[in-house]
Amino acid sequence: MKTKLRLLFIGAALFVIYVSYKILEPEFSRMKERSENSLRSRASDENYDTENHHRGKFDIDNGAQTHEATVKEGNVTINQVIDSMIERYSPYYGYKLNNTPWNIAAQWVEPRQIHPENAKELGAVLNAMAKGTITSADFGQKGTQLKLTLMIDDVQKVIFKPAWYPRDYIVTGTPYAGRDRHNAEIAAFHLGRILELRRTPLAIGRRLSIEKEILPAATARLKTTFFEKDGESCFYGRCLYCKGPDDGVCASHGIIEGTLVLWLPTDFKMTIHKHPWSRTYRDGVQAKWETDDAYCAKVKKVPKFNSGHQLLDIIDTSIFDYLIGNADRHHYETFENKEDSMLIILDNGKSFGNPGVDELTILAPLYQCCQIRASLWQKLLTLQDGILSKVLSGILANDPIAPVLTQPHLDALDRRLKTILDQIQACIAEVGTQAIVFESSIKGR
Ligand SMILES: Nc1ncnc2c1ncn2[C@@H]1O[C@H](COP(=O)(O)OP(=O)(O)OP(=O)(O)O)[C@@H](O)[C@H]1O
Ligand SMILES: [Mn+2]
């Protein structure tokens, strides 16, 4: 019996080494190819502003950022991998469009992705969100937290989630404590891109002038929630936790910082589902999943989870949430009447609260079901050894409200990634290779 276990373990370890090698191999050769082709293709792309040809930097900042990897034949360093990934995932905000940005973003939405892999128009859409004119401002429509619904250029709806905390504020208490972290929405959006999940709506930071940009566009009912404190304009909007001035946010020198999240096209209706691993939000009351190690087997008996991809989507999301420290995934939404719909990763506001706490219970869907899509596992393997934090911080460095995350939050990502990979190894040792599911996360089947 002991020998059998030992053999199984050695077999699993060899399998992991082989798969890791296979995964990294194409990344290395793609990198070589890219570095050879990048300058050539950049110069031939007429939509790139050749005077400011570097991607990234939100405001034109000549030549400050050069991520061209100089790859020597057969000798790829980790920094070159990082630079190449930053280059690949940094939106190019100066990209010039031939179409309206809003139509482009609306056409991207499909049942299993909100945007395509690495579209060059992404920077232009984000830029339009960050620079467009606010033509109307009203209460946020749904949810319990303070937010505004803004209209940009008369046509595009976005949510504005305002800043509550300075970047280095550490939220303590329950895993879901505190107000929303607006910066978390931006970090989550880009993390979703790096992980190739692409299920999070576009998000970008923006600083708005209350007097010049919000008040002139504000509805009468929103204006009634404005007040003054210490010579600054403030508002408290309307939501479950918006009772009055004590629940308001204030400008600083007339400016209020926040994150804009692009509203999904309204022709996609959404169905709301209770998350099977949701918390009770009651002190001393535990949910079933917290006390029952065989909980996953019970979830699998529910028709919508015993076939199809929703359970795997939940596992993807638990990995995503563990990385960002989001213990507040109480519900989730899918597209109505789309059989293959993804779990849309909406609302990441309760993330990046405490970089010193790794809330392992967020990973319960992974460790209780012991299954993960091969595509996500592969992606995670390529981001080990500090690559994840460096790539994400390189991309976030170009957001208008950078720095988006403090170093302790970035370090937490690498630490948590290691825990996830260890957990996957433990699952392989426990259930064998059936822990790895060969199903595309984008196609769903
Ligand atoms: N980008 C979006 N496009 C379309 N609908 C959205 C978008 N973002 C949020 N919604 C809708 O608004 C609801 C509330 O948004 P969100 O979850 O961000 O707010 P919240 O106040 O944090 O909610 P909760 O209190 O439930 O956590 C979502 O459940 C979803 O139905
Ligand atoms: Mn929320």
From TrEMBL:
<dbReference type="GO" id="GO:0005794">
    <property type="term" value="C:Golgi apparatus"/>
</dbReference>
<dbReference type="GO" id="GO:0016773">
    <property type="term" value="F:phosphotransferase activity, alcohol group as acceptor"/>
</dbReference>
<dbReference type="InterPro" id="IPR009581">
    <property type="entry name" value="FAM20_C"/>
</dbReference>
<keyword id="KW-0479">Metal-binding</keyword>
<keyword id="KW-0333">Golgi apparatus</keyword>
<feature type="active site">
    <location>
        <position position="328"/>
    </location>
</feature>
<dbReference type="GO" id="GO:0046872">
    <property type="term" value="F:metal ion binding"/>
</dbReference>
<protein>
    <recommendedName>
        <fullName>FAM20 C-terminal domain-containing protein</fullName>
    </recommendedName>
</protein>
<feature type="region of interest" description="Disordered">
    <location>
        <begin position="34"/>
        <end position="63"/>
    </location>
</feature>
<dbReference type="GO" id="GO:0005524">
    <property type="term" value="F:ATP binding"/>
</dbReference>
<comment type="similarity">
    <text>Belongs to the FAM20 family.</text>
</comment>
<feature type="binding site">
    <location>
        <position position="333"/>
    </location>
    <ligand>
        <name>ATP</name>
    </ligand>
</feature>
<keyword id="KW-1015">Disulfide bond</keyword>
<dbReference type="InterPro" id="IPR024869">
    <property type="entry name" value="FAM20"/>
</dbReference>
<keyword id="KW-0067">ATP-binding</keyword>
<keyword id="KW-0325">Glycoprotein</keyword>
<feature type="binding site">
    <location>
        <position position="161"/>
    </location>
    <ligand>
        <name>ATP</name>
    </ligand>
</feature>
<keyword id="KW-0547">Nucleotide-binding</keyword>
<keyword id="KW-0464">Manganese</keyword>
<feature type="binding site">
    <location>
        <position position="347"/>
    </location>
    <ligand>
        <name>Mn(2+)</name>
    </ligand>
</feature>
<feature type="binding site">
    <location>
        <position position="145"/>
    </location>
    <ligand>
        <name>ATP</name>
    </ligand>
</feature>
<dbReference type="Pfam" id="PF06702">
    <property type="entry name" value="Fam20C"/>
</dbReference>
<feature type="domain" description="FAM20 C-terminal">
    <location>
        <begin position="226"/>
        <end position="436"/>
    </location>
</feature>
<feature type="compositionally biased region" description="Basic and acidic residues">
    <location>
        <begin position="34"/>
        <end position="60"/>
    </location>
</feature>
<feature type="binding site">
    <location>
        <position position="180"/>
    </location>
    <ligand>
        <name>Mn(2+)</name>
    </ligand>
</feature>
<feature type="binding site">
    <location>
        <position position="347"/>
    </location>
    <ligand>
        <name>ATP</name>
    </ligand>
</feature>
